């Protein structure tokens, strides 16, 4: 994937990453190979996995079967529970490598678990993995400005991306500004609000006006905010729809109407509650 590939972002480590990737949380192991192969077939080149999802062996099988290993990026994440430490992170990475059958391209800290005060040590383990050439891109999930600032100040290494819950109820404008100022890509998790936004009348109206679906409107909104997203679907036609975002553009009025949907409502765990 070249840096100027349409539909990709150039990260602060010089690599390109597809803006829309395939989310794999809650995809059953028995469905995973089919879903990944369908996603690759319709054009996905970024697979968002994690050891916690329990389907990394099947991700590895699908990637090998596809013959596309060199053309795609696979993300994994260090879970950090029950033990969160420098050494344990290296062990978690080894386990993921064994399960996938290859090294992930992108490795993230799954949760900051700030009360344990270990995330800077975990970040140092990710830096080591990158320095050893075992992973290309390192980043974090659900980090706030305080935690990001500590990583940067104490290690001098800026995460390439922060994967955070974001959708029209929770646009994360403040954090996005911080990311933009520091060259960090905002990659949304649960970008469709776990499917709970589908009946919103504003989104339905905008979708009808453009002749697209509500998920397409929401994903296009993520892109027009300058971010990326990893929507999950197990249905081939929805996978295809969720990556088909170039045929229309939201107007300033559409963006303003979607801004009006912000309530702060979360559909996943608040990072403050995941320790
Ligand atoms: N870093 C972290 O801590 C976290 C990371 N994530 C990542 O983010 C990914 C996405 O988040 P997730 O929580 O799965 O939720 P999403 O916001 O991606 O929503 C997924 C839901 O939307 C439905 N859906 C998807 N596309 C369509 C469509 N075109 N039309 C109708 N329904 C649709 C899916 O149903 P169906 O499958 O039946 O199509 C599913 O019910 C995860 O899979 C994971 O990779 C998620 C949570 C936390
Ligand atoms: O947010 C939740 O409540 C979840 O169950 C998920 O976010 C899960 O914890 C996770 O980390 C998925 O990546």
TrEMBL record:
Record key words, sorted: NADP, Oxidoreductase
Active site (record annotation): 53
Annotated CDD domains: AKR_AKR1-5-like
Domain NADP-dependent oxidoreductase: from-to ranges: 26-261
PROSITE patterns in the record: ALDOKETO_REDUCTASE_1, ALDOKETO_REDUCTASE_3
Pfam families named in the record: Aldo_ket_red
Site feature Lowers pKa of active site Tyr, where: 77
Amino acids binding substrate: 110
InterPro entries according to UniProt: AKR, Aldo/ket_reductase_CS, NAD(P)_OxRdtase_dom_sf, NADP_OxRdtase_dom
MF-aspect GO terms: oxidoreductase activity, acting on the CH-OH group of donors, NAD or NADP as acceptor
Stated family: Belongs to the aldo/keto reductase family.
Protein name: Diketogulonate reductase-like aldo/keto reductase
UniProt source species: Salana multivorans
């Amino acid at each position: 994937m070249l840096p100027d590939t349409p539909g990709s972002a150039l990260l602060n480590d010089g690599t390109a990453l597809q803006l829309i990737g395939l989310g794999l949380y809650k995809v059953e192991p028995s469905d995973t190979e089919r879903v990944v192969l369908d996603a690759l077939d319709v054009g996905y080149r970024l697979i968002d996995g994690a050891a916690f999802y329990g389907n990394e062996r099947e991700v590895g099988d699908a990637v090998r079967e596809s013959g596309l290993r060199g053309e795609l990026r696979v993300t994994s994440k260090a879970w950090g529970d029950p033990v969160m430490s420098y050494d344990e992170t290296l062990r978690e990475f080894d386990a993921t490598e064994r399960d996938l059958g290859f090294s992930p391209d992108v490795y993230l800290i799954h949760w900051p678990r700030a009360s344990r005060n270990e995330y800077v040590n975990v970040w140092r383990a990710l830096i080591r993995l990158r320095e050893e050439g075992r992973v290309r891109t390192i980043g974090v999930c659900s980090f706030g400005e305080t935690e990001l600032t500590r990583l940067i100040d104490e290690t001098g290494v800026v995460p390439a991306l922060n994967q955070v819950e974001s959708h029209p109820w929770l646009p994360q404008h403040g954090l996005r500004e911080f990311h933009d100022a520091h060259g960090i890509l905002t990659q949304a998790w649960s970008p469709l609000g776990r499917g709970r936004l589908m009946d919103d009348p504003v989104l339905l109206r905008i979708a009808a006006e453009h002749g697209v679906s509500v998920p397409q409107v929401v994903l296009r909104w993520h892109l027009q905010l300058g971010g990326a997203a990893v929507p999950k679907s197990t249905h081939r036609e929805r996978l295809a729809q969720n990556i088909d975002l170039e045929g229309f553009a939201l107007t300033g009025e559409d963006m303003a109407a979607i801004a009006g949907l912000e309530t702060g409502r979360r559909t996943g765990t608040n990072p403050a509650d995941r320790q």
